[in-house]
Specification:
- Helix content is 12%, strand content 31%.
- It is mostly beta strands and 329 residues long.
- Among the domains are: 102-144 and 155-176 and 281-329, no CATH class; 186-273, Immunoglobulin-like.
- The strands form five sheets. A five-stranded mixed sheet has the order 8-14-13-10-11, with no helix packed on it.
- Strand 10 and strand 11 (232-236) form a beta hairpin.
- The radius of gyration is 48 Å and the shape is elongated.
- The relative contact order is 0.18.
């Protein structure tokens, strides 16, 4: 069959060309939006929540320190999603009240002089003005003690000094002496009178027997609280009762107290050699005789004023006179 000369190809029809172009454009648009649109699964996926910080979880904080002439960040940043932490300046503390100053005099080195009397003796002097002692009001307010205590009101005895500064209750001793040399003096009687211990400080040789007496017409008890020696606690129910005791080992400042009257206290020094003494009301001391010739360290020790030493030399038939100065502390 032969074609008619008036027939045209389908592709040359304008309407068909337009329809084909629109179909092609729709296909391209469909492919493009399908590729760029989120999937159904991801479209409904909730946004991730920030991970909570647990109370006990360690935090890493970087603190910006200020540099002169530069500006620093006002807050530190926490590492890896941790919360911000601001560094706060420490609050200023109020100034602490300080006790009133006590005048302390300059303390001179010990004055040591050789003597021809064969004795080691001398004086302990307090330099400076000590604080006033406190009155122990409980002595007078107690029904029994108020009657038994006569004379001046009972006070503390931190610094007991004479008008010229002579310091009472200081222990003076040879620090180290040859074994077996000398003989200790008879120890003082420790008395309870007017609800106070007398003397306030005493000294004994280790292994030496000493006596404690109750001179009040009512009960006291004696409680020793050493750190090295064996302690004791006994009652003294009547006036005139005496008990004997011994400390076997050297120890300084063993406290004796009364549990019935808690303000009552006395201190006993226990020494390893017999060359010692406790200063009297004038601040004077005399060591027992019999110290062999040689060089020694002489020590003055006071519970409040502290300790000072002097080097002395004792020749045959000779002695030493020593003046110690201790300051108020």
């Amino acid at each position: 069959m032969s074609k008619s000369p008036d027939s045209k190809p389908a592709a040359s029809d304008p309407l068909l060309v337009l329809i084909a172009a629109l179909l092609l454009l729709a296909a391209v648009a469909t492919i493009y939006f399908a590729a760029t649109a989120p999937s159904k699964e991801s479209a409904h996926q909730p946004a991730p929540r920030p991970r909570p910080i647990l109370q006990d979880e360690p935090r890493v904080v970087v603190v910006n320190k200020s540099v002169p002439g530069a500006h620093s960040a006002p807050a530190a940043h926490a590492a890896e999603g941790h919360a911000k932490a601001e560094e706060k300046a420490p609050e200023a503390k109020p100034a602490e009240a300080k006790p009133a100053a006590v005048a302390v005099a300059t303390v001179a080195a010990p004055d040591v002089k050789a003597t021809a009397d064969g004795k080691v003796h001398g004086k302990v002097v307090l330099k400076g003005t000590p604080p006033a002692e406190k009155t122990i009001g409980a002595v007078k307010s107690d029904a029994n003690c108020g009657k038994a205590h006569t004379g001046a009101p009972a006070t503390t005895r931190n610094y007991v000094a004479a008008a010229d500064g002579g310091l009472r209750y200081a222990l003076v001793r040879i620090v180290s002496a040859p074994a077996g040399a000398g003989k200790a003096a008879e120890p003082e009687l420790i008395d309870q009178i007017g609800c106070m211990y007398e003397p306030y400080v005493s000294a004994v040789l280790a292994g030496q027997t000493f006596k404690v007496r109750n001179s009040d017409p009512f009960m006291h008890n004696v409680a020793a609280t050493p750190k090295v020696n064996k302690g004791f606690n006994f009652a003294q129910a009547s006036a005139g009762q005496v008990n004997e005791k011994v400390f076997d080992k050297p120890e300084l400042g063993v406290k004796l107290a009364c549990n019935v009257h808690p303000w009552m206290a006395s201190y006993v020094h226990v020494l390893e050699n017999p060359f010692f003494a406790v200063t009297n009301a004038k601040g004077e001391f005399v060591l027992p005789e019999g110290l062999p010739p040689g060089k020694y360290t002489l020590e003055a020790n006071h519970a409040k004023a502290g300790t000072v030493t002097a080097e002395i030399e004792v020749a045959a038939g000779k002695g030493a006179a020593v003046t110690f100065e201790l300051g108020v502390k």
